[in-house]
Amino acid sequence: MSPDPLAVNLIHRVNVGDSLTRSAERHPDALALSDGSRRLTYSRFDEQVNRVAHSLIDYRVAVGDAVALASGNSIEFLTTYYACAKIGAVCVPINLDWRADEVAYVLGDCAARIFVVESELAETMSEAAATAGTVEVVAVVGPRPRHDFGAASITDFDSILAHSNASQPERLVGDRAALTYLYTSGTTSAPKGVVGNHTAVYLESMTMIIEGQFRPEDRFAAILPMFHTAQLNCHCTPAIMVGAALHIQRGFDPQNLLSLIESEHITQLFGLPMMYRAMLEHHSIDTRNLSSVRRALYAMAPMPQNMLERCIDVFDCEFYLLFGQTEMSPTATIFRPENQLTHSGSVGTPVVNVQVAIMDEDGNRLQQGRSGEIVYRGPHVMTEYLGRPDATDEAFRDGWFHSGDIGHFDDDGILWFTDRNKDVIKSGGENISSVEVEKALYSAEPGAAEVVVVGLPHDRWSEAVTAFVVPRPDTILDQESIRTKMRDHIDAYKIPKAVIIVDLLPKTATGKVRKNIVRDSNRSFYQQL
């Protein structure tokens, strides 16, 4: 008699949902999730996930079906995510910065049948669902809205949670089955759906546990948006895998986060450099007890060396920079504490489970010191771009995943990120790294809170290096003074032709500056002079 395929699958499969099941069995009474007003133990969280999973099965959600999720950081977000994982459905988190037409594109592209929506987002999401025409059922978190979601029926998320069956759902789900479709922003074309699979995210979680030394007794502050791979896969899934506590924050506020660190004895932080800066500049920072924090992660943007040193001094813990991209689930390298004083500005060394190389345009690996495209191998790599075989083929070449990033390894085996290929500025016959210029400006001008450098059309230079700078509070910056100071930090031809002082910069929901918008909205700058 041949073995039952489902039984065999359940015995040895790799499934992100199973990591919650195991944590619930090991630590049933330990705190899993807290949002300030609700606290769920691991046993209760797992039971809640199982009820939602069975409800999705009742709605005829099959393995591979897409379940869209429009929610801020919440218990319901993680409940839906893990319910999808357990039954082989594909969770499609919606970026809350998207317009209705962008959401509609994603819903249609992934053919989402089920749509979990927070009631406060109903206006945008109802328009999107009606336009897409694929959504059959909308489960609303919170008060039922008056909006029409097209032909979709509307139910309450609470009714899904009330399903009578809290047992572990049993379905045959392959190790490389799709877990998420995470859509990357499209600057010149429609967004691409990055297909993340169970093996990739499972091993990303294990990588973070190893590299970050995560422990069951840890207490994590979940600050960044969960719809982004960084918060979801670098912090949430590994924290739940190890059985730690997640304290969910709806957004970032320095006062609230500092208070949370004290009241809940937070041990693990993950934020943007601007968030750490805001805490350092908060009026109460010198009176706060931050001794519980033992590790702090940051990503999305570089941290100036003087600011990093100040963070290490104030928080008295180790700081790690994570570097990667959505297609890598997302971590590829980590800038570790032992390199921070000797290799300031680098992005560190490869993590467990990831191989990194530098390659030229002909597919040849380059030696240390030579610049080229950063390429990756390893189980973290995505499966494909959803429905985009040409884009997938372009990324999967020469036996490596091509990142679109430019960089090099130095003689110590440390990786240096130069720029995104599309952000390299071609000026006067030279290729200039926008990132290098940004770092130089930060070093030259302590009064700069935020900096972005782009190339703008110029009759003489083709593209002119141009800096946009947000001053620190109560600081007045002078454009020419900044350019003069930069002479000691960077080659003369790389100094911005213009420094433009602004009040704010356009950003994504995760805090990354949207360089494409800065470029596009200022294309005629030099023609107007």
Automatic annotation (TrEMBL):
Protein's UniProt keywords contain NAD: no
Name of the protein described by the UniProt record: Acyl-CoA synthetase (AMP-forming)/AMP-acid ligase II
Native species: Rhodococcoides kyotonense
Residue intervals of the AMP-dependent synthetase/ligase domain: 21-386
Pfam families for the chain: AMP-binding (PF00501), AMP-binding_C (PF13193)
Record keyword Ligase present: yes
Positions of the AMP-binding enzyme C-terminal domain: 436-512
Keywords, alphabetical: Ligase
SUPFAM superfamilies: Acetyl-CoA synthetase-like
Molecular function as annotated in GO: acid-thiol ligase activity
